[in-house]
Amino acid sequence: MIEVMILAVALSMDAFAVSIGLGTKEGSPKLALKAGLFFGIFQALMPFIGYLGGKGILGWIGEYAHWVAFGLLAFIGAKMIYEGLHEGIEQEITAITHKMMLVLAIATSIDAMAAGFSLTLLDVNPYIACLIIGITTFAFGWAGVLIGKKSGTWLENKAEIFGGTVLILVGAKILLQHS
Fold this sequence. Notes:
Blueprint: H1 2-25, H2 29-61, H3 65-85, H4 98-116, H5 126-151, H6 156-178
């Protein structure tokens, strides 16, 4: 279960970074709750979709599944690190609407769908794992807005780099366990 908690923190770093950026524009408690809900719900749903897809193709790729999981997590992690080193979409946001929050929630959780494939290789209940991922992301999304209001964007990029590094390490752990 520790792997799920680590995965949850790593996956929530995208939402955390975006929430910090949102908080620099409007750091209200209402926005913090909205960010937590939008990001948390989508981060819980997308890994479950990835898990179901992974179960469907697991029979086809069988003995190479650990390599696929590693490749996906390494790719997602590298992408997060790259995004952490460059300016994000948050700089371009002018109005924080429900539609914009929906777009951001989907954009930050697409990676979680691919990471959900790795749940097929972990000895965990996927419902509980996705619930943990959703609750963790809710907390980071909520806190990110409030932190962004107080601190500005200095933590934003560091969160993405940290999350990307952790995802790569989780992928490496899966690879080593199944090799």
